[in-house]
Amino acid sequence: MRIPGGILTGPQWQALIAAADELGNGQLELTSRGNLQLRGLGIGDEVSLATRLQNAGLLPSLAHERVRNLLASPLTGRDGVGQMDVRPLIAEFDRELCARPALDELSGRFLFALDDGRGDVLAAEPDIAVTATSPHTMRLLLAGQPVGAQCPGDAAVELMLAAAEAFLVERRAQGGTAWRLAELTEGPGQVAARLGIADAAGPTPSPAHEPSPAHESSPGPEPGAAPVPGRPIRQRDGASALVIGIPLGGLTTDQAKVFLRPQLILTPWRSIVLPDLDTDDVTELLAACAGLGMITDEFDPLSDVTACTGRPGCASALADVRADAITTHRALTAAGGRPAIGVHWSGCARRCGRPADAVTDLIATGSGYQVNSGDRSVGVGSTPAELATALAALPGAAALPGAALSGAAALPGAALSGAAALPGPVATSALTAQSTPANDPALAGAS
Q1: How open is the CA angle 413-322-28, to the nearest 5 degrees?
Q2: pTM value surpassing 0.85
Q3: Which of 271, 276, 227 is nearest to 251 (CA)?
Q4: Alpha-carbon gap, residue 130 to 140, rounded angstroms
Q5: Distances (CA, A) of 233 to 178, 194, 221, 297, 301
Q6: How does pLDDT run across 168-222, given as a tens digit for each residue?
Q7: Where are the beta strands (DSSP E) in 76-153?
Q8: Is 196 left (phi over 0), alpha (psi -120 to 50) or beta?
Q9: How far apart are the first and last CA of the chain?
Q10: Which residue spans within 159-280 are E strands per DSSP?
């Protein structure tokens, strides 16, 4: 389900919770594009789901549903970071996209972004984006390359959609097989030429802060950075926004009910922003979310961990990667270790949901996991101790004290294949050693 800009109203969130409970498996999954997935639908339930989404204002065009992939800076216009409030452009973009029949030919992987100048959503490597260069001007980026001169902010949506149409024309000219702009031969230059603009515009301006009133609490994330979970962010109007991380992007409907507020914003970092809060709201929400097992602290062991759906939700998965991830990272944290960079767990070599940032990959092989980090590739074995030790041994990771993970006795539970004593979900996959090349082209999956 596409959620342009990640913005949802309380009634829309309630409708999604009801759909997950009544039609699906009782869970909502946040994606790395700020969208949602609902799994476990019965045969024929997609018709009922579509009706519910249309009634909630979440399905304006059946033909365009797969291409409504739009990221927008989640805190835009609220926290005093960035150059321009891009919120008004989100609804305009969605409306105008759905009004152009030709654009339903875009691939579901094609990605748009509205960046308010802070550079946060540009890290997702959108095909077509605009980034604010002043409170009134923006610049077009094609596959990350700035093109042309600055344009007025109120012309940005038209320019983005014209670029998408130019991509389709150029794709047909090149044989019609490219899903994304970067897959075209000289894609940015060719699309820019079809738009009649120069294909080189100089460097994109560095993300900058808007002028904003002084305030006592955090002014928000650093330019270009993702918002930090659990740290209240003072808005320009004096209210606060709160970011809550969703472990591995998965919410039960009971957990989801804590977010029933007038508005919430889904982010591509699998977190949820709750804006326009007062001090009591912040205190109550932090306590409630922590009690429900969500990420309310940037040092939470799962704050830099992502995973695909895995078993049992995906037929291609070779392991219950979410349960394995939770068990392993708890074991690693209990022993005092922490990976230097994010970790992505994949149930197969496609690596679905993998962030664009540099991460360590753990890829299920059917008889274990392959750990790939940079040019290093190792197979690891049958317990969370072995997986945690492999992660701790990577360059820059927090070192483990002595032999803390040398055996299951040091863990807060048993091995993954029989971890009934462990809190939370239990992994059922066997984790034994297997090795494959670190740069195996079969591992180049979609994000």
Answers
A1: 130
A2: no
A3: 271
A4: 5
A5: 41, 43, 8, 14, 22
A6: 999 999 998 899 999 999 999 999 999 999 765 555 555 554 443 333 344 444 5
A7: 112-115, 128-132, 137-142, 145-152
A8: left
A9: 16
A10: 233-234, 240-245, 250-252, 263-266, 271-277
